[in-house]
């Protein structure tokens, strides 16, 4: 949970944001809890929160040309910023300079960016072109991509999902699991989609050399043709590489805005999603991911929050461990035991 310095700083910065029309999109702690990065418009600012109300930016980065939608910081001190142009800027915070520009994977707004913790030179992005892309950001090139808007994936996703919303499958948010969750069995990401679905993707399988996936796989190809690996949450395939959590399983009836793996309890066991249908869904996703079980992924909790969900996060505590921001003026905190 935040230190007393961080609590003071958040209160100060929110007050400042309201006064000056500063739009704060996100902030991220790195190294120690006294150093924070915040994006506002097309700027990124870093602060030492121990300074409280006297805090002034330590650094300001202006490499993004359009409004920033999300920032992330890697264990190596690289800062990624995804913006409305579809580009992602990678900043070396040690040398305080632009390191790489990730471009051309997205043809529309890049809405989300995360680093992959067990692959220190790899990042993952999602956009409103319905694409998910994984990058070697040291070389500025994509390793693979999934086009959720492709006819093949659209047809696979819509089968058996009567009542599913018909919005485009925009990628609104991406969450990457921490290394070592559930005994180190899974290295996955979760994708919040505009059509109301949540996908969980086995990143290590997708990133494996083509020869280990069989003769039909071409290295560097997009995943839109990999319909044989698309799961629907049930155990009807001998080897699950992706699962698809949608309306037919009790999922969202409108766009999913955010996803997060649980930091409470058994870390990563549960997946929490929030959507424009004013609901939170808590999934036991790993049951349907393992080929060694006969169980399906299942919805374990459905919470009506009354308002559209904008963002959520989880905390590694026994109480007050699910925090939700919606379209009301109240931040809601839930206890998940």
Describe, in plain words, how this protein is organized in 3D:
This protein starts with a helix and ends with a strand. The protein has four helices and 23 strands. Helices cover 10% and strands 39% of the residues. The strands form six sheets. A four-stranded antiparallel beta sheet has the order 1-2-3-4, covered by helices on one side. It has a domain at 104-334: 7 Propeller (Methylamine Dehydrogenase, Chain H). The protein is mostly beta strands and 337 residues long. This is WD repeat-containing protein 53. Keywords: WD repeat. It comes from Aegilops tauschii subsp. strangulata (Goatgrass). WD repeats lie at residues 103-145, 249-284.
What strand line-up does the widest sheet have?
Answer: 1-2-3-4
Q: How big a fraction of the residues is strand? A: 35-45%
Overall shape: it is globular
Cα radius of gyration in angstroms: 19 Å
Q: Main beta sheet, described?
A: 4 strands, antiparallel
Can you name the CATH architecture of the domain at 104-334?
7 Propeller
Full CATH superfamily name of the domain at 104-334: YVTN repeat-like/Quinoprotein amine dehydrogenase
State the low-pLDDT regions, or none.
Answer: 5-12, 17-21, 215-239
Q: What is the gist of this entry?
A:
This protein has helices at 4-20, 151-158, 203-207, 286-289, and strands at 24-30, 32-40, 43-48, 59-61, 68-73, 78-83, 88-92, 97-102, 110-115, 122-127, 131-136, 141-147, 171-176, 188-193, 198-202, 242-245, 256-261, 271-275, 279-284, 298-304, 309-314, 322-326, 331-334. With 337 residues, it is mainly beta.
